[in-house]
Specification:
The chain has about 240 residues and is of the alpha/beta class. Helices cover about 30% and strands about 30% of the residues. It binds S-adenosylmethionine (SAM).
């Protein structure tokens, strides 16, 4: 089994166990999006509304973004949506909501490292929820994103800050503490060769420098702190240069 087959298997298992990030958009959220009050959340952080201004009628790719959350909301807001994801189980959720709500959503099973099915300049927007920790190298993804975006097109991505991977929790009988022990880049199999879990911790140079190198100019940055102090995520908005 290659790493992507293993990731797909891992994700499908989590979805079957109702992992929290596989929750679909609610009827109320879809109604609000239809009324022009679109709100897209990655975890508990809302994508700033001005990042998505004018999305109606635009061609949008939800990249590694299945699960019945972002794609149906964007379709309700009037965007022409394609969702590409590795996981059949996640895509089934978008398919189901599209049928229930009579939304036109193009569903594509595939790997975000290879977008060769899409022509150059196909999309106005690409939204990529937290998923880049499942690819060993972010560069091929950013290269493909830049290729399939129109000039002036917008790329919005969310990813874990490296602090998620730097620290181990040390139990000391007094509540414990975190100790920074892991060097970046991080690869889960280097720490537990017996586990089937596949995850990579990329550096900020990979995330920020990688986008810039591919012609994506970063115009927005937002952080999202979850309960655990090492669970820090960030969102970037980038524009494809001409
Ligand atoms: C944490 S979920 C994010 C989706 C969810 N809708 C959300 O808002 O958080 C990560 C998604 O990335 C997908 N994924 C992981 N690796 C992928 C790859 N190489 N190509 C395409 N999708 C991938 C998974 O199948 C999963 O649906």
């Amino acid at each position: 089994m290659n790493i992507f087959e293993q990731v797909e298997k891992n994700i499908n298992n989590l979805v079957e166990n109702n992992v929290y990030w596989s929750a679909c958009a609610t009827t109320e959220e879809m109604q609000r999006a239809r009324e022009g009050r679109l709100s897209i959340k990655f975890f508990d952080k809302e994508v700033p509304t001005d990042w998505l201004k004018g999305i109606k009628g635009k061609k949008v790719l939800c990249l590694a973004g299945a699960g019945g959350l972002q794609a149906p909301l964007l379709a309700c807001a009037g965007a022409e949506v394609t969702v590409l994801d590795l996981s059949e189980k996640m895509l089934e959720k978008d398919q189901r909501i599209a049928e229930q709500e009579q939304l036109s959503i193009r569903i594509e099973k595939g790997n975000m490292c290879d977008l060769s099915r899409f022509a150059d300049g196909s999309f106005d927007y690409i939204l990529n929820p937290t998923s880049l920790m499942y690819v060993p190298d972010v560069k091929p993804v950013f290269r493909e994103v830049s290729r399939v975006l129109k000039v002036g097109g917008i790329f919005i991505m969310m990813a874990p800050n490296p602090i998620n991977y730097l620290c181990d929790f040390v139990e000391d009988g007094k509540g414990g503490y975190y100790k920074a022990v892991n060097r970046m880049p991080y690869c889960s199999s280097d720490h537990d060769s017996m586990s089937d879990w596949v995850e990579y911790g990329h550096t900020m140079e990979d995330y920020i420098g990688g986008q810039i190198e591919c012609g994506l100019v970063i115009t927005g940055y937002v952080e999202c702190q979850l309960e655990d102090i090492t669970e820090l995520h960030f969102l970037t908005r980038a524009v494809k240069q001409g």
